[in-house]
Design a protein that fits this description.
This protein has 327 residues and is of the alpha/beta class. It folds into 2 domains: 152 residues, 3-Layer(aba) Sandwich (Rossmann fold); 158 residues, Rossmann fold, CATH 3.40.50.2000. Helix content is 29%, strand content 16%. The strands form 5 sheets. A 6-stranded parallel beta sheet has the order 3-2-1-4-5-7. A 3-stranded parallel beta sheet has the order 8-9-12, with helices on both faces. Strand 1, helix 1 and strand 2 form a beta-alpha-beta unit. The N and C termini lie far apart (50 Å). The mean pLDDT is 96. It holds the Pfam family Glycos_transf_1. InterPro entries: Glyco_trans_1. This is Glycosyltransferase family 4 protein.
Length: 327
């Protein structure tokens, strides 16, 4: 099968540090190539692009740019137009306004689909061969926060509170002590170590040595790569029960979910009760790129056979990024 992925990111691809969607799409395309498919990309111009990438021109229609090469087109954005080729769309984010989606839209967790009035979803997976080995016996005194520290719904403030109350340092991957711009801050809490937008081995080593990922998000997380990355490297997860988290943290050995800070603190005080080997095994076996590619293959085949993935158009009636409560 000839598959064209449309990903209109502005940064490098594959992503070297951050860029969750970019890493998922790269893992998906790599798995599809291993399975014998031909894969190309349509992307914005950038100095770091795979060989053979078609360069997006906003002055031209998608029909003009896609050419006659692909059997199917996979948009990694909301697309609701007409196309001369069969296509699917993966929605990677939450709607930030009243919105309708194409009937061939795929979401990335069951709750994510439900929140957009759909039943069609495929879990994100990653190519674990690109990751370091897990650590089942960390000797550190810290836990970690993985996400954009400036985003209120990621809730760095809540993670810092839980870590301090439980007697742990907090290592932040995804922010600096001083951030300027939208949602900027100056954080003078020296119980927190800020690592900036760290990636690669430096990122893996911090997660491997961490006692747990703190993930007290205050929105319905669409999926949460931070969760599966941390699990793969041996780190249990303590977070809220919003969005996809109950679909990923399905065993008591790998994490604890609550919308109450005191209960999170108590879980962190008993972090030794979690099983880091089980954390690794579940991420490795359930959230890998091969399973993701197989699930997308099923969706492609439905569309190529003339079916639509959703009986009706998925939609949101309002924003899904309002902050949710934690007691």
């Amino acid at each position: 099968m000839k598959i064209l992925h449309v990903l209109l990111c502005r940064g490098p691809f594959p992503a070297f540090k951050y860029g969750g969607t970019e890493r998922v799409v790269w893992s998906l395309a790599s798995a599809q190539k291993k399975q014998g498919h031909d894969v190309k990309f349509l992307m914005r111009p950038h100095e770091v692009r795979p060989e053979g990438t078609l360069l997006y021109n906003k002055k031209k229609s998608f029909n003009e740019q896609i050419t006659d090469w692909p059997d199917i087109v996979h948009f990694h954005c909301a697309y609701n137009g007409e196309l001369n080729k069969p296509f699917v769309c993966t929605e990677h984010a939450n709607a930030d306004e009243k919105k309708q989606y194409h009937r061939n839209t795929i979401f990335i967790s069951q709750r994510h689909a439900h929140n957009h009035h759909s039943n069609c979803y495929v879990f994100n997976g990653l190519d674990w061969d690109e990751y370091a080995k897990p650590n089942f016996n960390p000797k550190s005194n810290f836990v970690h926060f993985l996400g954009k520290a400036t985003e209120p719904h990621k809730n760095l403030k809540g993670a810092a509170y839980v870590a301090k109350k439980a007697g742990y340092k907090l290592s932040v991957l995804g922010g600096k002590r001083l951030e300027i711009g939208k949602n900027g801050y100056c954080n003078l809490d020296f119980n927190i170590q800020f690592n900036g937008m760290v990636g690669g081995d430096a990122k893996f080593n911090i997660i491997r040595q961490s006692n747990a990922l703190l993930f007290p998000v205050r929105w319905h997380e669409p999926f949460g790569l931070a969760i599966t990355e941390s699990l793969f490297l041996g780190s249990p997860v303590i977070g809220t029960a919003y969005g996809s988290l109950p679909e990923i943290i399905t065993e008591p050995e790998i994490g604890f979910l609550s919308n109450n800070y005191n209960e999170m603190i108590n879980a962190l005080n008993h972090v030794g009760d979690f099983n880091r080997q089980t954390c690794h095994q579940i991420a490795r076996d359930l959230f890998n790129a091969d399973i993701m590619a197989n699930q997308y293959q099923l969706q492609y085949e439905k569309v190529l056979n003339g079916q639509t993935l959703n009986e009706n158009q998925p939609y949101s009636l309002n924003t899904l990024i309002k902050l949710l409560p934690i007691t």
